[in-house]
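I had to read the description of the data format several times before I understood it. For illustration, here is how one protein appears when written out as sequence plus structure tokens:
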Amino acid sequence: MQQNHSVTEFILLGLTQDPMRQKMVFVIFLIFYVGTVVGNLLIIVTIKSSQTLRSPMYFFLFYLSLVDFCFSTSIAPRLIVDSLSAKKIIFYNECMTQVFALHLFDCMEVSVLILMALDRYVAICKPLHYPTIMRWQVCTILIVLAWVGSFIHAIAQITLALRLPFCGHNLIDHYCCDLQPLLKLACMDTYVINVLLVSNSGAICLSSLVILMISYIVILHSLRNHSAEGRKKALSTCTSHIIVVILSLGPCIFIYTRPPTTFPMDKMVTVFYTIGTPFLNPLIYTLRNAEVKSAMRKLWRIKIPTESKR
């Protein structure tokens, strides 16, 4: 593997160079990050503490919230701190670590969304076989495979990043480290690496969206045979999933399935799926899910008397 030590640090340009706008970025994204942490941790604690949220659907929702928390934490704190810094320096090793974390948690989120779609497909289309197919052992194995697959994907991405030689240019026109902005700094022909990037990340995003959309079309088609009440409940759950799928995969497809061309909206699209989506997911799943809201209320009622007695 080609090693290069001529560049030990990069300088991030961030979202804006205007001091007033940088303060706005600090306030806005601090609120978003705090909301992401609180929302996802609340779902994690609720699912772990509740006796009613024991189905495979909530098992997968637990991991989606965990991944959203980790995904946002790998990007947002750095963006928040940098918004108040005159010179946004990120060391080479830290930059490579961020590339790895970004792709690990992004791929894991997509994998969990696919598993959630699988769970809904079995529950709605094969209800009699649901307890047999979606056993806890099966769900655990699926989650482990999702982590392994995401790790392999992240290793592939970081391997491409580590092979890039840098010959002095270290100004990254972005707020985080990713392969696309790094490709522009490399002193080599990056056509082959970009093809590998598109065939890896781009193919994963696009194929995942196709799989998910086909699965939900099949699910929605099969709802014709259900009762009105069952149809309403299934539609509510599936609608939440479809919204999250579009919010998660839409920006990824825009970023990773095209030639190495820069568009003015690239940064904002990346902001949306690295910070906006982890913030919105807890809201979507709690506001549209009566069982989660009920479990949260019960948990809150238990905690308040316990604290007041002390």
Q: What stands out?
A: The chain has one domain: 9-309. The chain is about 75% helix and 5% strand. The first strand starts at residue 9 and ends at 12. The longest helix spans residues 92-125.
